[in-house]
Automatic annotation (TrEMBL):
An example molecular function term from Gene Ontology annotations: methyltransferase activity
Highest taxon listed in the record's lineage: Bacteria
Statement: the UniProt record of this protein carries the keyword Lyase: no
Any GO BP: methylation
Keyword list, A-Z: Methyltransferase, Transferase
Name of this protein: Class I SAM-dependent methyltransferase
């Protein structure tokens, strides 16, 4: 039985049961192997831009005797995905800028999916902004802490016309949702609260040790703005606990 890390388990748990999966940047193919063996999905295509990760993926797939259920493809993002080949696209463990590039270059293929499962390692606010400005919305979010690192992840649905008509929050609050996660905030996610408190402590310590000089003023204002945002979100979600 495949044993996933806490991060990979949380990603796998966001995949809708019965969907066929395209795992972009698959590396070891752990997520599709787990989902097929658990009976959560009927099959998957494991894709990577480099041959090395695909060799590892094929080895793991063969060791689990899943060659009939999980295929591998050399592909730059969604480029090699065929129409109707997958329902869910999984992109995890890469920087937000690269993730946005893959989504943008594969926009036509993405439109043919039912959902995306995204776990950016950085620039998460940029990924969330891209989602809401490109005809998609976040339906679920999770966040886990593993080995001292924090990992947010999201299930993203392609918008219907009906959903697109839903009113948007005001600009300032929309920016907070991009930064901290609309569903994480709405559900007062305990790991988000833990991360916010840690970030607040880090910012406080930096401010205390930042010399009051003209060349550090811009940095000070940036940190004060971040502190204000963290405090606002904590005030919003803490009463829900």
């Amino acid at each position: 039985m495949v044993k996933l890390s806490k991060r990979l388990q949380a990603i796998a748990d966001l995949v809708t049961k019965g969907n066929r999966v395209a795992d972009i940047g698959t590396d070891h193919a752990y997520i599709p192997i787990y989902l097929v063996k658990e009976g959560r999905i009927p099959g998957a295509v494991a894709m990577d831009v480099n041959e090395g990760p695909l060799l590892r993926a094929r080895s793991h797939i063969a060791s689990e005797h899943l060659e009939d259920c999980i295929r591998t493809k050399l592909s730059d993002g969604f480029a090699s995905l065929l129409p109707g080949e997958a329902d869910t696209g999984v992109i995890a463990g890469m920087g937000g800028a690269l993730m946005i590039k893959i989504l943008s270059e594969g926009e036509t293929k993405v439109r043919g999916l039912k959902e995306l499962i995204l776990q950016p390692q950085s620039e998460t606010a940029g990924v969330r902004k891209y989602i809401r400005t490109h005809g998609m919305y976040i339906s679920q979010e999770d966040m886990v802490e593993e080995d001292g690192k924090y990992y947010p992840m999201m299930q993203v649905k392609i918008c219907s016309e009906e959903r697109s008509a839903v009113s948007e929050p005001e600009e300032k609050h929309r920016m907070l949702e991009d930064a901290f996660g609309p569903e994480l905030m709405k559900n007062s996610h305990p790991v988000l609260i833990q991360w916010l408190k840690r970030e607040k402590q880090i910012v406080t310590e930096i401010l205390e040790n930042l010399p009051r000089q003209s060349h550090t003023e811009a940095r000070r204002q940036e940190l004060l703005q971040k502190m204000e945002e963290i405090s606002q979100v904590l005030m919003e979600i803490s009463p829900k606990l």
